[in-house]
Known about the structure:
The protein is α/β, with parallel strands linked by helices. The chain has eleven helices and twelve strands.
Amino acid sequence: MDIVVFGAGSLGSLVGGLLAREHDVTxxxxxxxVERIEGDGLTIDGQLDVRVTPTATTxxxxxxxxxxxxAVKAFDTxxxxxxxxxxxxxxxxxxxxxxxxxxxxxxxxxCPVLAGxxxxxxxxxxxxxxxxxxxxxxxxxxxDGGTDPLADHTGAAFDAAGIETTVATxxxxxxxxxxxxxxxxxxxxxxxxxxxxxxxxxxxADIAASAARETARVARADGVELADHDAVAALESVASxxxxxxxxxxxxxxxxxxxxxxxxxxxxxxxxxEVDVKTPTNxxxxxxxxxxxxxxxxx
Length: 299
Ligand SMILES: NC(=O)C1=CN([C@@H]2O[C@H](COP(=O)(O)OP(=O)(O)OC[C@H]3O[C@@H](n4cnc5c(N)ncnc54)[C@H](O)[C@@H]3O)[C@@H](O)[C@H]2O)C=CC1
Ligand SMILES: CC(C)(CO)C(=O)C(=O)O
């Protein structure tokens, strides 16, 4: 299968590198990472040990492939979609966190857009080298739920490359449940500067549970069956399983980088307003992160 991975940063380089063991992969990223891959190939280390030589480019225009995998940060999705729209693909797949990415992609690209949630951990440690910080699982399916042969074919392609993959018919529920987890963990760990596990038995536990419950209420108003207790159970399960992880939002704050707050807490607040649900906890967390970003000139 010909695959373009658009956004060859941490996650895109890990997934693209693993896919390159089995498929013809083109990574779209930025220099010096792209230059090093073109010169010396891509190394994956940490919990995996892989060396591959995928094609890499900084120019994502006019590309043609069976599948476009999108792995840019949520705030770059619109620009990425506009670039991908100059090319031709049988399907696109978002591996991103946050909500709204698939709709943004579908508004620009005229091929089916699949949704994905992935629990691998990746960190770009040097040009040409990405560390796998955790081996996880990929779930892929039609973004509105149901079945689609494209999802089956995509899942088989990832499985063939050694990426354990489940093809699901309930992606809307999975995306909302992942959003509840991110809305609960990411902003609190970023503001408190703590690992994921620290919020379980801390004064922030109630705040995290409240953010998760608010997200579940918005999901139900959006027509997705996600009970409050399911969202809280998912939060507790992930925070426990990734207790020693520094969330992506904490890493962004520590790196003085823009966060994905608009696609996480901000999305909950904005969607809640459309369906007349109150989300004081998510509103407060979104405001605090945005205040930090503004103070750093990041928005
Ligand atoms: N890093 C991880 O372990 C995981 C990340 N995710 C999600 O995956 C997404 C990506 O996250 P990361 O890989 O950590 O971010 P990242 O910032 O390391 O990678 C994104 C890359 O896309 C590149 N990019 C953006 N626009 C581009 C363009 N127009 N042309 C070429 N390159 C472009 C950026 O330069 C950057 O290198 C986020 O939504 C994140 O929440 C999800 C699970 C795990
Ligand atoms: C699930 C969690 C919180 C794991 O760290 C994550 O997806 C992130 O850090 O963005």
